[in-house]
């Protein structure tokens, strides 16, 4: 049950009780009114309106803006009709208006429905009507107006806080339910699918031939599925084969909103596979969205170079380090390495993969890309992005 539902029930009871109170106050001083028939007519309308609209103050959905406008009109009309029904002497003496404290119920309906801002508007209208009825500010009038104003705004603020707490609680319950379901699925997958994939990988390696290729694919799917069920870091991704170049390109579908930071781990997680190992911190590695995407693209370019030049059987390792002043990503492979002068020769031939895809991206981010390669011992690429520069992007 909503935490504000008891307020609606209390408001319905308040309106009925204050209607009875207003009629009783009028009945005790009926003979003192200048035009009592005006008051009788108003109370007849007030009684019918209060009882007929009880279903409309049952909850926020039924309490519409049109009802609130009509309800505050009834309250303001009662205050101003006091000038017609009562004598000037009684008004000057500070006698209550026709609706008396029933008016507060109309203001409270605004507060519960729309929060403290709506309550402030309704209280201001009631205050203006009271000042017109009294002919000016008096001590009792100001006291009553401020009391209604403060009470309505306070209740409206409490309702807003309660609604925000309800939304937070609902979100927490959703996350808890999703986490439990993911843990249940992870257990089932671990006991069935992951074990089957691991067995296919082992048997394929033993049999060889086409079975070895099936085993390799099963191993890649095992790593990807294990990463998904264990951390949930892998966003929705697609894998496309470039037949001409023999490269595997993984494109991660991210939201187009560049306003907030991204977790670099989520962008690098799809690269993990049977021949690519990913080591990362346990906490999020946050970078501005453009910087995170450019750094991930540079890592992807480095892995593409491993596949093209080190062979399909080469292994690669990605190490992510979150330093206080910089984020460092190291990509290392066990390929044959790059012969001395080969990069300069490639640039001269117009092949600018390292120069543009890796070093160019890091230079635009204010970072550096260091490449160390020893023939026969593989290649290591260190990508470093300073946090101070990326914060200002």
Automatic annotation (TrEMBL):
InterPro entries in the cross-refs: DUF5931 (IPR045975), HATPase_C_sf (IPR036890), HATPase_dom (IPR003594), Sensor_HK_TwoCompSys (IPR050482), Sig_transdc_His_kin_sub3_dim/P (IPR011712)
Ribosomal protein in keyword set: no
Gene Ontology CC terms: membrane
Region feature (Disordered): 373-393
Transmembrane segments: 12-30, 36-58, 67-85, 105-129, 141-159
UniProt xrefs under CDD domains: HATPase_UhpB-NarQ-NarX-like
Pfam families with a match to the protein in the record: DUF5931 (PF19354), HATPase_c (PF02518), HisKA_3 (PF07730)
Record domain Histidine kinase/HSP90-like ATPase: where: 290-389
A GO molecular function held by the record: protein dimerization activity
Keywords tagged on the record: Kinase, Membrane, Transferase, Transmembrane, Transmembrane helix, Two-component regulatory system
NCBIfam families: HK_morpho_MacS
Protein name: Sensor histidine kinase
Organism per entry: Streptomyces chromofuscus
Lineage of the organism: Bacteria, Bacillati, Actinomycetota, Actinomycetes, Kitasatosporales
